[in-house]
Amino acid sequence: MDEAGLGIVMVIYVAVLVLIIASGWKIFEKAGQPGWAVLIPIYNAIIMLKIVGKPWWWLFLMMIPYVGMVWGIWTINLLSKSFGKSEGFTVGLVLLGIVFFPMLAFGDAQYQGPAAADAAQNYPEYAE
User: Fold this and answer.
1) Tell me: the pLDDT tens digits for 31-70?
2) How wide is the angle at C-alpha 71 spanned by C-alphas 16 and 120, nearest 5°?
3) For 88-96, which contacts have Cβ atoms below 8 Å and span 24 or more sequence positions?
């Protein structure tokens, strides 16, 4: 790849990175959390768990190979539900996050509170 091609790839990479950071920032702010938290590794995952209503120690479950994928997708599903979206939107977030995270952030979706807390209230037999 020549220098011009590499430059174009770098510009696209930075643009996508800025889009993802801006989307996360806006999602955090919609949920009443500090937007800057999206910039700090580990802490951003703890804030995400707070947004969806799960305990901080879920972070350890997300670090287990293969098992972490399940917990990560579950967390994304709870994020989707916390903003009043369906499982179909969750599939979009997982498979095409570059499109669906900005839709969640900059669209008309409103944070409705932690989905996990809502589920625990409506279905106490399944509460932790």
Assistant:
1) 999 999 999 999 999 999 999 999 999 999 999 999 999 9
2) 115
3) none
Distance CA 84, CA 4 (A): 44
Using only C-alpha atoms, what is the Rg of the chain?
A: 16
Q: Are 37 and 28 in contact (CB under 8 A)?
A: yes
**In Å, what is the CA distance from 114 to each residue of 15, 104, 124?**
30, 15, 15
How many residues are recorded in the chain? 128
Token duo for residue 39: 């910039």
CA-CA-CA-CA torsion sign (23, 27, 33, 37): negative
117 contacts: CB under 8 Å, gap ≥ 6: 53
The stretch 85-106 carries a mean pLDDT of 95
